[in-house]
Write a structure and sequence with these properties.
By secondary structure, the protein is an all-alpha fold. The chain is 60% helix and 0% strand. The chain has one domain.
Length: 98
């Protein structure tokens, strides 16, 4: 879906935005995107302690998604949700696909 607007994306739920952004990042094999959004989560310090930082050869998209599921198992909190929404929307707009 090319040519999507900010307003169209902003009308979506955070989970819909996440699904679209994650699907696009998977297609693009963009592991850096996954690791960047993990840093917005309350347990971001745990991500920093991992041996596989986005600059190393080790991390994979599947590992990043597994951490995402672990850290967001009970949904989004009020503090991080706006940051995550902005990151998802920015990623989708900057790659002109949703």
């Amino acid at each position: 879906m090319a040519g999507v607007t900010f307003a169209e994306l902003d009308a979506l739920s955070t989970e819909d935005l996440r699904e679209r952004a994650f699907a696009l990042a998977r297609r693009r094999r963009d592991v850096r995107f996954f690791w960047s959004v993990l840093r917005h989560l309350p347990h971001a310090d745990d991500v920093e302690k991992l041996d596989g930082s986005p600059n190393s050869v080790g991390p994979t998209i599947d590992e990043a998604v597994a951490l995402w599921r672990e850290f967001t198992g009970h949904g989004y909190d009020d503090e991080t949700e706006p940051l995550l929404r902005a990151a998802f929307i920015d990623y989708l707009l900057s790659h002109d696909a949703a």
